[in-house]
Amino acid sequence: MSDLVQQPWFGWAVLVVVGLPVLTIVLTEVEGRLVRRRSSMARPVRLLRAFILPVGALLVLLTQVPNSVVSNESGIVKITATVLGLTVLVFVLSGLNTALFLNASAASWRGRMPSIFIDIVRIIIIGVGLAVLLSVVWGADVGGLFAALGVTSIVLGLILQNALGSIVGGLLLLFEQPFKLGDWIEYSKTRGRIVGVNWRAVHIEVDNGIMIVPNSSLAEGAFTNLSRPTTQWTETVELTFTENDPPRDVIDLCNEVARGLPRLAPGHEPSTVRTGSGKYATSIPLTTFADSGEATAELLTRLWYAARRANLALNGADIWQGESTADVEVLLARAATRLRLEADQVAELAPRMDLERWAPGEVLQRVGQVPTAMRWISEGTVALRVPAPLGGELGVLNLGPGDLLGQTALTRTGTPWTLTAVSEVTVLVLPYDVLTDLVRADNRLARELGVEIDQRKAAVDAAQVQTDEPAMRRSTSGAAARA
Question: Are 196 and 242 in contact (CB under 8 A)?
Fold first, then answer.
């Protein structure tokens, strides 16, 4: 018995007999949990359990068998070692791909890395692994093999120089890094966003689909990276009004609408110039070219509403005010109870009023602005917001159909809140002179307007108190922690 224990292979045999089942059970449990969680790491663990452990155990036993039975230089040992090496190589590739790239978010550097770089790393790992296997297991002259491959590569390069040109061009482009995934470029008078880079070509998403551009064409030609301007990107929108529209009014309106765009670059102002008879161009400073499409669409949408409110004919369209005379009387009849009107007053006052439509996101009234008219909401939702103590805006309440806006027009005072359209809003406009006539006719309307103003100010104060309390608690806790 003591002679058996003293054999050099005995310890290895015990390790295989005991360790292999234990590790198999542990890895089986780990794999089961990963599968239940739908984790991508289940595949590398399965590879480790089902292939690497058994083949590794077999190789250990074969190398510990006396040379008189199985020589370490025999074919069965070398084949087993080769299978183990290839399996480990596959495990390393699978593990790296799963850990680094498979679950990477599109915004991370791993998600933005071009696939061609990943392929190069894989080829390097495979080449190094095969070289180690050939040298260690089979005793091959790796240096001579690489020399032969070098000569062969030169011959193949001369034969396939056109096909390899795109690959080399892609590598040079990526090493220079003139663009990255997600950048917008302009090539051959076509603008698009880069969505993929591989060995042969760059994939550019354009309006009509995906444009495939060979790497060699990009490397030899000229293109513009619109996502990397020297300063901000300026988008110019061509607009058309009628010749009868006063140019100064058109320019002021376009600048005012563009100034309210959410994608306007901070600290910059839009500008509008007259380029011809009824032709105008509005320049919008943006942070990046990627915002140009949405900014243009938002400008045209808001300008459609604003031009009709200002009685300006965008693209020669009919003016909203001229179409709304009959609708004013209909809405005024609906608002008669709220405004304390008699039936005979509706037809009398309708010609003195107007209808307005506002696009989502437009500001109906700003902080401190003195309204020139009171408005009655017919359709849509308006958000009442105030400046937040830590920046931004604080939502207080939403106003809907039947609610009034701009009650302080009666007292000629501003308000501490902003009124912003949440959806498309249609309002009935009561100019100052109409509002004063209504108040003189019925004093109860003035009292009701005063009560509404006080209620909204109370709601603003309550919202600000609720916001200040958490900030105060954070400040107190921070001071206590520093103490």
Answer: no
Determine the CATH number of domain 163-225: 2.30.30.60
Specify the CATH architecture of the domain 232-319: 2-Layer Sandwich (3.30)
- pLDDT digits over 410-440, tens only? 889 988 899 999 999 999 999 999 999 999 9
Torsion-angle region of residue 74: left (phi > 0), alpha (psi -120 to 50) or beta? beta
What whole-number distance in Å separates Cα of residue 251 and Cα of residue 273?
A: 7
Please determine, for residue 481, whether its predicted confidence score (pLDDT) is greater than 50: no
CATH 3.40.718.10 applies to domain 324-469: no
Provide the 10 A C-beta neighbour count for residue 185. 22
38: Cβ contacts below 8 Å, ≥ 6 apart: none
pTM of structure = 0.61
Q: Radius of gyration over alpha carbons of the chain, in Å?
A: 37
For the chain, the structural domain boundaries read 14-113, 163-225, 232-319, 324-469
Q: Which helix (H) or strand (E) holds 239?
A: strand 233-240
Quick check: helix, strand or coil at residue 287?
Answer: coil
Q: Which two tokens stand for residue 194?
A: 């880069």
Distances (CA, A) of 355 to 76, 249, 279, 314, 408: 92, 20, 27, 18, 19
